[in-house]
């Protein structure tokens, strides 16, 4: 991923007239994000917090270039919204929507892999670049401009990590919630590569969960490619096998998917680890 896609300015909101879309449009604008328009089929001509509403992305692109789209469209129509953004070749798409059917995400993943679009999410809090862009729902006041890169599968723990770093006076360059669904866009490895290649990032925090193998892939990448300090925490040390905890992807199917096994792998790769997030944050220098 190119760091420039995160600092680009022209942002739109798909699903801008809904309860969540309209609320977070105002919140993002209050944080300084430049929102040039929004979409809601059949509601063209309305204004939401002073932002013009269009029927489609194509209509917006007749007037202005779009760099980033944030999606708040409900799950049954989220697939069509993501495909509309991919087809429009928007460089960065952030999907906040929770509960998108897995077969819809299989189709989307196939399209994403053949496109130039970067997808963050779904089922994620989005992105916060403190002092720059707020793209999603992460509260801006939790961030502080600085040099730490945070990537997390957990929305709530994303907030906690950023807030505790900020309380200690340690600022962040990136706060990225990639979401906890089984099939998603950008991965831990994508974000680790971004952080490693950005000279402004001096240290990295990775927050994983039980279920799946993405933390193991991250451990391999850290061992082979990352030279910056990495601090890692995996949620779910007391999770029982076969029970979904929160996110659709947070199901412990076997020992390899456990918090203990993933923590061991990340530690063996060179990351500083802890079995609790506050303890991990206290170790960040």
Written description of the protein model:
It is a single chain. The protein has 285 residues and is α/β, with parallel strands linked by helices. Helix content is 34%, strand content 21%. Helix 6 packs parallel to helix 10, helix 7 packs parallel to helix 8 and helix 8 packs parallel to helix 9. The longest helix has 13 residues. The radius of gyration is 18 Å and the shape is globular.
Question: What's this, in brief?
Answer:
The chain has 285 residues and is an alpha/beta fold. Helices cover 34% and strands 21% of the residues.
Note the main attributes of this structure:
7-stranded mixed β-sheet; globular; 10 helices; 285 residues; single chain; alpha/beta
Helical coverage, percent range = 25-40%
Q: How are strands sequenced across the largest beta sheet?
A: 3-4-2-1-5-6-7
Arithmetic mean pLDDT: 94
Shape: globular
Radius of gyration: 18 Å
Low-confidence residue ranges: none
What is the number of E strands? 14
Tally the helices: what do you get? 10
The SSE order reads HEHEEEHEHEHEEEEHEHEHEHEH
Structural class: alpha/beta
List the SSEs and their pairings.
Elements: H1 4-7, E1 11-14, H2 19-30, E2 35-39, E3 47-48, E4 51-54, H3 57-61, E5 68-71, H4 75-87, E6 92-95, H5 102-113, E7 118-120, E8 126-128, E9 134-136, E10 145-152, H6 155-167, E11 172-177, H7 188-197, E12 203-209, H8 214-225, E13 230-235, H9 259-268, E14 272-273, H10 277-283
Parallel strand pairs: 1-2, 1-5, 2-4, 5-6, 6-7, 10-11, 10-12, 12-13, 13-14
Antiparallel strand pairs: 3-4, 8-9, 8-11
Helix pairs in contact: 4-5, 6-10, 7-8, 8-9
